[in-house]
Amino acid sequence: MLRSASTSATDLLQTSPYLTRVTPGADPPVVYLTDTFGPAYPQGEPPSAGAAFGIVGLDRQIVWQTDTQVLELLRACAGEPRAVDELAAHFGAGRVAAAVAQDWLQAPEELCRAYRLVSGEIEVTAHCNWGCPFCPVATDPKPRRTMPMDLFEEIIGKLKAVGTIDYVTFQFFNEPTLDRHFTDRVKVLAEHDMQLALYSNASALTQDKIAALQRYGVLRHLIVNMPSTDPAEFARLTGSRSYPHTVRNLKAAIDAELRVQIVVNGTGEDLTRNLNGITRRYQPLGVEVFPSLTCDRAGDVGGAYAQDVRIEGRLTGCGWPVQHANISVAGDLFLCCNDYYQREVFGSIRDGSIDELMTSDAAVSLRRRVFGVTDAPEDFVCRRCHNQTLDFPGRDFRPIATFG
């Protein structure tokens, strides 16, 4: 029997936009970059003999299929709801029922209600002491604000209750080590057995903060934005005179045997030159060095970083509003890491559990726009974001409706 959330679901079904099609022997069209120590891909058993395609959903597991009619069924319902009787007559009631049982076909009102959070992205302080040209802070810094500890503790308690959170971060276009409550927050994480991915420019990563990270054992990894080993170039790229402090603190973190990664931001020849300099200095110390995938933050950064992205028609999916809970310094939940001005707020942490907020009508409505189930407004932030381009190398969703 087809299961449904309401009476209308017995009449209409549509393919979940969270599904991605994969082909045996080919590179998958999705890659997970935002929450791993390197590129990760959908997992599963090797394709069985005769496997024609695989389906990947929220759990990132490949389910191989030999029956090509299943794929045709999912294609038929990818763009709009179809009547159950019509689908059963064309594809067979058994195939339809099996697809419903897998949540591959859903009642239209259930589309984009599911989520699977892997991180909590918490803006503990709304301030940065650098003005990097690849960041909106350089041209439009926000007023200084700090999240109260009682609000932070409520957020951590609610994130812990989710059960799928791998780690939290303290950043959103800010410098988290400027936070006067930094050590207290680290202690709270330890009390809840939660891990911290600390993104920092290291300029205020003092010895006492390093000692707290060691003492409480919550650090998943430390990702340091280090633009150049040349002091003059460093000052140009950060708008800051903190080079001596940054280098000293970074060395102290390495000596303390924290797991350190360095990301180097930039474009063109500047990036190549600075990446080579950082690699020569820090890789021999056991530090992983990577170029950063810079972008224009959905049109909020110009100059050499401007991408001039404009997505027309239905949008094509993105993992941020499904996999990451973005929480502002005031406790508001908003769409994603590229929404610098937090235009798309869908609730306050004070108003309920994470599950209640993530399944609210406001949250589901936003995700339906992101995944192309409904039309997004012309000024919707995702229309200017590189994550929505089909050739973006870091796509972690590729809805079946977007395949030819």
List keywords for this structure.
single chain, 404 residues, alpha/beta, four-stranded parallel sheet, disordered N terminus
Task: Give the SSE map.
Elements lengths: L11 E4 L4 E3 L30 E4 L5 E4 L2 H9 L5 E2 H8 L1 H9 L3 E2 L12 E4 L26 H14 L4 E3 L12 H10 L4 E5 L6 H10 L2 E7 L5 H8 L4 H13 L4 E5 L3 H15 L5 E4 L28 H4 E4 L4 E3 L10 E4 L5 H5 L2 H10 L34
Parallel strand pairs: 7-8, 7-13, 9-10, 10-11, 11-12
Antiparallel strand pairs: 1-5, 1-6, 2-3, 3-4, 13-14, 14-15
Helix pairs in contact: 2-3, 4-5, 5-6
What this model shows, in words?
With 404 residues, the chain is an alpha/beta fold. The chain is built from twelve helices and 15 strands. Helix 4 (149-162) packs parallel to helix 5. It starts with 11 loop residues before the first strand and ends in a 34-residue tail after the last helix.
Mean pLDDT across all residues, rounded?
95
Number of DSSP E strands: 15
Name the helicity range: 25-40%
Measured by DSSP, the beta-strand proportion falls in 5-15%
What integer value in Å does the Rg equal? 23 Å
SS class: alpha/beta
Low-confidence stretches: 1-9
Sequence of secondary-structure elements: EEEEHEHHEEHEHEHEHHEHEHEEEHH
Sum up the overall morphology in one term: globular
State the helix count: 12
| Assembly classification | single chain
User: In order across it, which strands form the biggest sheet?
Assistant: 8-7-13-14-15
- The end-to-end span amounts to 31 Å
Largest sheet: 5 strands, mixed
